[in-house]
Specification:
Elements: E1 24-27, E2 33-36, H1 42-54, E3 58-62, H2 68-79, E4 83-88, E5 91-95, E6 109-110, H3 115-126, E7 131-135, H4 138-141, H5 146-155, E8 158-163, E9 167-173, E10 182-184, H6 190-200, E11 206-211, H7 218-225, E12 230-235, E13 239-245, E14 255-256, H8 261-273, E15 278-285, H9 292-299, E16 303-306, E17 317-323, E18 331-332, H10 344-353, E19 355-360, H11 373-382, E20 387-391, E21 394-400, E22 408-409, H12 415-425, E23 432-434, H13 447-454, E24 457-458
Parallel strand pairs: 2-15, 3-14, 6-7, 10-11, 18-19, 22-23
Antiparallel strand pairs: 1-23, 1-24, 3-5, 4-5, 7-9, 8-9, 11-13, 12-13, 15-17, 16-17, 19-21, 20-21
Helix pairs in contact: 1-2, 1-3, 1-7, 2-3, 3-5, 3-6, 5-6, 8-10, 8-12, 10-11, 10-12
The protein binds shikimate-3-phosphate.
Length: 459
């Protein structure tokens, strides 16, 4: 049963459907210098809107990422019955409907390019007695959704329509009487874990997620911040067992969104590879389940110094001073992947500028991101004269200390390919061009102007 038409969020912000392509070229640049505050963390921004929409009362969010992915989530929670108001840049207020209180949206929920918004809200909708249809762009339509449908089916929800059995568009009928489940995630994925926990909110009793490798824990932390009872215990050598007591009264709570370490990764590597650079990145979130790239770059010899560490807003953060460095190749163990899953593209760029071989192990999950990032990383490097190989799920980059450049990189509707290739071009001997920089707006809309302000030659 579909509900009546409801007003969208009062934001004044819109998202594009990328009708035209916008190529961009990066040229070898003089030393980068200055301060940059990258936009708010994407994972936290999605969760703030979703939990705000499920809480009772008005949640004030500051520093929200106003990238296209998050705007799609704001429109989706409004369509599900929450009131969403944008008060100023990054400053938003959500009046929630209470756990289990989502209403059937009048229209298909469109998540654009965003796997996180789509999968987390599938979980939240699965625990409500409503029907909703989920869809996205051509990239999101290719991505696996069975990993969400499997656990939410155990909980009592049903997919009544899905392309190829488990791809978007998907129509989901939420559970009338959701049952709590104990679920072991088949891969280390915060999106699967979060979907199960958000579905379990509406179930009586305890919902448990077990993961063999710990993935980012923002959902657990934010649920506790909103008053839910959540415990997280070690499970085996690297895993976690997370248990949520169902049917909590979630109470609105203020959220301050720190800067996104996955976005900071781009100016960070740019500063390392452009000779003479000295850059400060401010307010970067340092949740240990997100800092695998910084640990790896330091292993490679990077001069990255945390100058102002603090933990005053729920998640730890720091300012980082990054100076151009001579890097050396390293071996990155598979166990590090969950803490840097979005950073392998830009790590591969750093590895190309390093002396020696970098081996990145256990990257099977990269094949199902916004694009097949394992293949795309190899193509990006090869097109610019870097020697690279894929062996099963491992990526091997033979660094020579410099990059010839001169290539055209296909971005495959993937923001991180576009930004990684452009960063690579800032130190390369010949310019590096990307076919379409438009998707950068999904996560880091001001990437080009902020990089130019440091001295990057992007046009
Ligand atoms: C995210 C989890 C990761 C990551 C994505 C954001 C999240 O995906 O790649 O960009 O906010 O939970 P997986 O959980 O599927 O690895």
């Amino acid at each position: 049963m579909l509900g009546g038409r409801r007003p969208g969020p009062k934001t004044g912000l819109s998202v594009t459907s990328h009708p035209t392509v916008s190529p961009m070229t990066a040229r070898r640049s003089a030393a980068l210098a200055g301060h940059m505050r990258v936009p708010g963390d994407k994972s936290i921004s999605h969760r703030a809107l979703i939990l705000g929409a499920l809480a009772v009362g008005r949640t004030r969010i500051s520093g929200l990422l106003e990238g296209e992915d998050v705007i799609h989530t704001s429109k989706a929670v409004a369509a599900l019955g929450a009131r969403v108001d944008r008060r100023g840049e990054g400053s938003w207020e959500i009046s929630g409907v209470g756990v289990g209180g989502f209403r059937a949206p009048a229209e298909t929920l469109d998540f654009g390019n965003s796997g996180t918004g789509c999968r987390l809200l599938m979980g939240a909708v699965a625990g409500c007695p409503i029907t909703a249809t989920f869809d996205g762009d051509a990239s999101l339509r290719k991505r696996p959704m069975k990993r969400i449908l499997d656990p939410v089916t155990l909980l009592g929800a049903r997919a009544v329509a899905a392309a190829d059995g488990s791809r978007l568009p998907i129509t989901l009928v939420g559970a009338r009487d959701p049952v709590p489940i104990v679920y072991r995630t088949p891969v280390a994925s915060a999106q699967i874990k979060s979907a199960v926990l958000l579905a379990g909110l509406a179930a009586p009793g305890a919902t448990t997620v077990i993961e063999n490798e710990a993935s980012r824990d923002h959902t657990e932390l934010m649920l506790a911040h909103f008053g839910a009872q959540v415990t997280s215990e070690p499970e085996g050598p690297h895993g976690r067992r997370i248990t949520l007591r169902g049917q909590p009264e979630l109470a609105a709570a203020p959220i301050v969104v720190p800067a996104d370490p996955s976005s900071a990764a781009f100016p960070m590597v740019a500063a390392l590879i452009v000779p003479g650079s000295d850059v400060i990145l401010t307010d970067v979130m340092t949740n240990p389940l997100r800092t695998g790239l910084i640990a790896t770059l330091r292993d490679m010899g990077a001069a990255i110094e945390a100058v102002n560490t603090r933990a005053d807003t729920g998640e730890p953060m720091a300012d980082f001073r990054v100076r151009a460095s001579t890097l050396r190749g390293v071996e990155v163990p598979a166990g590090r992947a969950p803490s840097m899953i979005d950073e392998y593209l830009i790590l591969a760029v750093a590895a190309a500028y390093a002396e020696g071989t970098t081996v990145m192990r256990g990257l099977q999950e990269l094949r199902v991101k916004e694009s097949d990032r394992l293949a795309a990383t190899a193509d990006m490097l090869r097109a610019n004269g870097v020697e690279v190989a894929i062996e099963r799920d491992d990526l091997i980059v033979h660094g020579k200390g410099h990059v010839p450049g001169g290539g055209l990189v296909a971005t495959h509707m993937d923001h991180r390919i576009a930004m990684s290739a452009l960063v690579m071009g800032l130190g390369a001997r010949a310019p590096v061009k990307v076919d379409d920089a438009g998707f950068i707006a999904t996560s880091f809309p001001d990437f080009a102007p902020l990089m130019r302000a440091l001295g990057a030659d992007l046009a």
